[in-house]
Backbone:
């Protein structure tokens, strides 16, 4: 459970107690109790089994894959995978690879609907680049925490120079939002548009994989999860 869930739940439980004390109405008291239960559920943070293997890139968040595209960046051609997080998804974000955070950049912007492709460039966002080490050596992956229509706060708990492990919790985006993952041009995608993924557990792509690999568009193999 993310700490914010306890904070929101406590506030609404206090409101429920006040409603009961001053009105004696069960129905008025029930509304904040239900809201407290919702926030406890919304800020859930389930454990995930992180896939092991050379060059695997896992999803930084839970949600629906809405786009896979080739894009041009100042560093050259890259692939981008976009994931939409609805209000019903887990909103904890995880590192897509293990390595060193080379930079973190916050950008002010708008709050367009996160399903809108323009939100990738125009919305408020936090951009994090990780340079791989260990089994992910040679990889460089950037992921963006993008605010949505309802999301008004992005939380990032990593800083430049910090080491992160693949699947490690690195922050969250409150309420509906989007995460984009920018991959090397030669990455072999293991997801397709319309597929649902889980943060830290679903493999988005493999870069320079060893052994036999799956073709692009093959559904990710999700690992076991402890609730």
Residues:
């Amino acid at each position: 459970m993310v700490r914010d869930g306890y904070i929101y739940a406590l506030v609404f439980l206090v409101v429920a107690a006040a409603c009961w004390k001053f009105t004696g109405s069960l129905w008025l008291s029930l509304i904040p109790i239900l809201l407290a239960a919702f926030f406890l559920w919304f800020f859930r943070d389930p454990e995930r089994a992180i896939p092991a293997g050379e060059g695997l890139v896992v999803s930084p968040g839970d949600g629906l894959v809405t786009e896979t595209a080739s894009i041009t960046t100042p560093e050259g051609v890259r692939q981008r995978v976009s994931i939409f997080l609805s209000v019903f998804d887990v909103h904890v974000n995880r590192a897509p690879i293990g390595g060193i955070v080379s930079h973190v950049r916050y950008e002010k912007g708008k709050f367009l609907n996160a399903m809108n492709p323009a939100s990738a460039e125009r919305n408020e966002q936090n951009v994090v680049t990780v340079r791989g080490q260990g089994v992910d050596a040679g990889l460089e992956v950037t992921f963006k925490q993008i605010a949505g229509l309802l999301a008004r706060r992005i939380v990032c708990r990593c800083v430049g120079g910090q080491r992160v492990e693949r699947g490690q919790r690195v922050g969250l985006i409150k309420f509906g939002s989007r995460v984009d993952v920018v991959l090397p041009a030669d990455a072999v995608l293991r997801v397709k548009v319309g597929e649902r993924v889980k943060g830290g557990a679903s493999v988005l792509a493999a870069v320079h994989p060893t052994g036999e690999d799956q073709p692009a568009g093959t559904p990710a193999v999700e690992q076991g999860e402890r609730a």
